[in-house]
Write a structure and sequence with these properties.
Largest sheet: 22 strands, antiparallel, barrel
Helix content: under 10%
Structural class: mainly beta
Strand content: over 45%
């Protein structure tokens, strides 16, 4: 099926449709026209110019009015990094441009409050006797919302008097157990980077060794690994794929359910991660939610091409300090019909999502939080409603033979309890439930035409069903973490993460067999999935940190993973180690290594292509764990106060990868990105792979009104299937380079205009020689087995530009931004697709990535 891509919201409109198109025996599949690229209509371009210019001038005029000096309250807490125990009498201060100091000491609960802080970017410094001082750069203080900070200080390994020199923490990970391949990311970064669209995954694709899998999705490829190797955690709970229109077996999607408005600063890992993280072989997102304002009711609204959002937060009880935070987002694309934009189809994808958090402070510094996130998405492509044949360039071609309905539901709810028991001990525990489902229903279109020429019309004869499936996964989760400082030099961290996963998969299909000069024949229903089963996933861990001096630090730990579905999925000991040594003068060395394992995508265990009395006979139930050994050597250098240069070299040995029992090039190492389910033959854990490479990051943190980030990596990712041939992994781009820059001009009182750009180039993916005969039989591109991944697509290039303005009024902040994605409209090839009856006569066509796409939003905080 072809979908014309002349659409402003290609990301949401066109690419979500790709979910819906199944091919024979291969599940969900897409065919898009190769000769079309998205572009803006002249009418739409003028409208964007008018919207941007009008709002810009309107808001700018606000600053021309005489107004009182705008200030805001900055408050928060200071705690010990490991025990989370409040630090009393810590000094928190801001040094203003005129030399005046705004400062205060924390109270007996570790809380501080700074009144009348001027709006704009501020630098906040925190010191405490016996602890390493810290500095928070570029804290954006706006008139619309109070700034609430949670600062964690690291205790020095030796007794120290109070010092005035302040260490910078920009980009340093919050987890004290991580020594290599880890970075903290902030909400500000998800907004600052051009092309990130406020999403953690798209933001992370700017880091060294990380690249996007597909413009239409936010899958990420880390060091050549499959995107399915990425672990998502929220408040310690293992969460399902946090994206709309999520396909089983993937970790991404067209648009995220997560929203940077409710996330706190979080950690991202690209390799050799600490022992507390299991069931992931590529990387980890360790996400945290923030609490709502517990003193003042605040609100936020946002209107943009990606949705309309509302958020509220405030105190439940000012006496107890209890607070709430709630947000909701809704997207409907009826706007584009109103604007007369041709999206090539009447099918309009719709989605909505939301989140909430209730936080209740308890006695002795404890707290209880009740929180949840969720999202719904659906799309109906009803080609039977076409009244006449479509003109070339709108909606045409091969699979105009079915109506398609697709929807997904995702929800997570949990309770989290935290308690610093004393100055040395801290406990955190969470219990929760999550559910994710996806369902598809297809109807074959039988119709005939009446009339001729301009009067030719379709008449529907019947709509028999040909595909029906529903996947449901419900998970009960529990997490507990116990951290104790054994001494000033050592600490212990133990815990367990346990899940009970109930899997319910139902799938039936009827194959349409073409007949010469007659109506195609529908074969009887065939069941491919019929599973209703549960299994436990248990992951205990223990790790110890030893810091004999402020220069040297070492972390050692073990993780264990048990998957109760079969007897082959138990990894009793997975050792992890990390260490760092401060050479002085801003130089630091790091070393990390560890064994990591992961279960397979649960639905793959239950697929059957062999049936006895119409009862599916699952033959992948005995698949074991995929294993990966990581080793990393890192070097950090801070040549100046706001500069950082980081280099890492790594090697990964992958083994026990599922491959086909028969001799073939197939391997699950190449799966996990896109809109396709997988229908593998009998799988055995006999595949191998290896990845190695070097990465370089040159970063100037935001200061003096500008920042830049340069990241580059050179790598090689290979694998062996059951035919024992060493091949390029599909994601082996071999090189990736990103360059980001932004300049901010301040005016008025804390108002600012920001202009930034991003340039990305990545090596192309790999393919083989097309098997024409087999492709014709299966109606999709099939490669000759012996040539798989021997031909590389052309390199990927993209240039994005982002402009944003922030305007402060009394108790009100406006923000307007527009993101121009792929401003050069470059045609980056994604893959080959099979298009029977293509006008050129060649059914094998190139499918391209995202073309030029402008996205804007307007936000107001009050």
């Amino acid at each position: 099926m072809f979908i014309h891509r002349d659409a402003l919201l290609y990301l949401l409109i066109v690419n979500t449709k790709r979910i819906m198109l199944p091919c024979q025996n291969r599940g969900i599949f897409l065919a898009l026209p190769s000769n079309k690229q998205p572009h803006l209509t002249e009418k739409m371009m003028k409208l964007l110019h008018l919207v941007f210019l009008t709002l810009f001038l309107l808001m700018l005029s606000f600053t021309a009015e005489a107004q009182e000096n705008l200030t805001q309250t900055v408050r928060g807490s200071v705690v010990d990094q490991e025990s989370k125990f409040p630090l009393v009498a810590a000094k928190v201060f801001i040094l203003k441009a005129d030399g005046e100091v705004i400062g205060n000491l924390t109270n007996d609960r570790g809380q501080f409050r700074l009144e009348n802080v001027p709006v704009g970017r501020q630098t906040i410094q925190v010191t405490y006797i016996g602890y390493t001082p810290t500095q928070l750069d570029n804290v954006v203080v706006s008139s619309g919302k109070e700034v609430i900070l949670h600062v964690e200080l690291e205790q020095s390994s030796v007794e120290l008097e109070e010092v005035e020199l302040v260490a910078s923490r920009s980009g340093e990970v919050r987890n004290e157990m991580a020594k290599v391949s880890a970075r903290q990311f902030s909400v500000e970064e998800t907004n600052l980077y051009a092309g990130s669209r406020g999403e953690p995954a798209r933001m992370a694709s700017n880091y060294a060794g990380v690249q996007g899998g597909d413009d239409s999705r936010n899958d990420i490829v880390i060091r050549g690994n499959s995107p399915q190797g990425v672990l998502w955690r929220l408040e310690g709970i293992n969460i399902p794929n946090p994206n709309h229109f999520a396909i089983p077996g993937t970790g991404g999607g067209p648009v995220t359910i997560l929203n940077n408005k409710f996330l706190a600063n979080s950690d991202f890992y690209t390799g050799a991660f600490p022992a507390e993280f299991g069931n992931g072989t590529a990387g980890v997102f360790d996400l945290r939610m923030r609490n709502g304002n517990n003193e003042k009711h605040e609100f936020s609204g946002q209107l943009g091409f990606l949705g309309t959002e509302l958020m509220a937060e405030g105190p439940i009880s000012k006496e107890s300090g209890a607070s709430y935070l709630a947000m909701y987002r809704y997207s409907t694309l009826a706007l584009f019909t109103f604007l007369n934009i041709n999206v090539g189809s009447d099918a309009i994808p719709a989605y909505q999502d939301g989140a909430f958090r209730l936080n209740f402070p308890l006695k002795n510094g404890a707290s209880l939080a009740i929180w949840g996130i969720g999202g719904l998405s659906d799309i109906d492509i009803l080609l039977s409603e076409q009244t006449a044949p479509q003109a070339e360039g709108d909606l045409y071609a091969a699979n105009q033979d079915r109506d398609q309905y697709f929807g997904t539901n995702t929800g997570v709810g949990a309770i989290t309890y935290t308690h610093p028991l004393n100055v040395d001990t801290y406990i955190k525990a969470s219990v929760g439930i999550s559910r994710q489902s996806s369902d598809t229903y297809h109807e074959q279109i039988y119709r005939h035409t009446e009339g001729t020429g301009d009067n030719e019309r379709f008449v529907v004869d019947s709509l028999p069903p040909i595909l029906d499936y529903e996947y449901q996964e419900t998970k009960l989760s529990a997490y507990v973490k116990f951290n104790r400082k054994l001494s000033r030099k050592a600490s212990l961290n133990v815990g367990v993460n346990a899940d009970w996963l109930h899997m319910n998969y139902i799938d039936s299909v009827r194959i349409v067999v073409p007949q010469e000069n007659s109506v195609p024949v529908l074969q009887p229903w065939r069941v491919r999935w019929n599973a209703d089963q549960g299994a436990a996933l248990i992951q205990p861990y223990a790790q110890i940190k030893y810091k004999p001096s402020d220069q040297f630090e070492m972390v050692a730990g073990i993780n264990s993973l048990y998957w109760g579905l079969n007897d082959n999925s138990f990894s009793p000991i997975e050792p992890r180690i990390g260490m760092s040594y401060d050479l002085g003068g801003g130089h630091k060395l790091g070393l990390g290594a560890g064994l990591h394992s992961q279960i397979q995508s649960p639905y793959l265990y239950f697929y059957s292509d062999v049936q006895v009395n119409n009862d599916p006979q699952e033959y992948n139930l005995d698949m074991g764990l995929t294993k990966s050994f990581h080793s990393v050597l890192s070097y950090d250098w801070y040549p100046a106060k706001f500069m950082r240069i980081k280099a890492e070299a790594y090697f990964q040995s992958l083994y026990d990868i599922p491959v086909e029992a028969r001799s073939s090039s197939y391997s699950l190492i190449n799966a996990g990105s896109g809109f396709s389910r997988f229908f593998p033959d009998t799988l055995v854990n006999e595949g191998t792979g290896r990845n190695f490479g070097v990465e370089l990051t040159v970063e100037r943190f935001f200061s003096g009104g500008y920042y830049f980030l340069l990241t580059g990596s050179v790598f090689d990712a290979k694998y062996r299937g059951s035919d024992d041939v060493l091949r390029n992994a599909t994601f082996n781009g071999q090189f990736a380079f990103n360059a980001l820059f932004a300049k901010e001009w301040s005016f008025g009182q804390g108002s600012a205009f920001n202009l930034g750009g991003k340039f990305t180039t990545v090596g192309g993916r790999w393919r083989g020689e097309v098997d024409d005969a087999e492709s014709l039989r299966q109606l999709e591109v099939v490669y000759q087995n012996e040539t798989v991944n021997t031909i590389q697509f052309d390199p990927y290039f993209r240039f994005d530009v982002k402009a944003a303005i922030r305007l402060n009024r009394k108790r009100l902040t406006h923000e307007l931004a527009i993101d121009f994605v792929n401003v050069t409209n470059r045609r980056n090839i994604l893959t080959l697709t099979y298009v029977p009856d293509h006008p050129t006569g060649n059914p094998v066509q190139e499918e391209y990535q995202l073309g030029f796409l402008p996205l804007f939003y307007y936000k107001i905080d009050f």
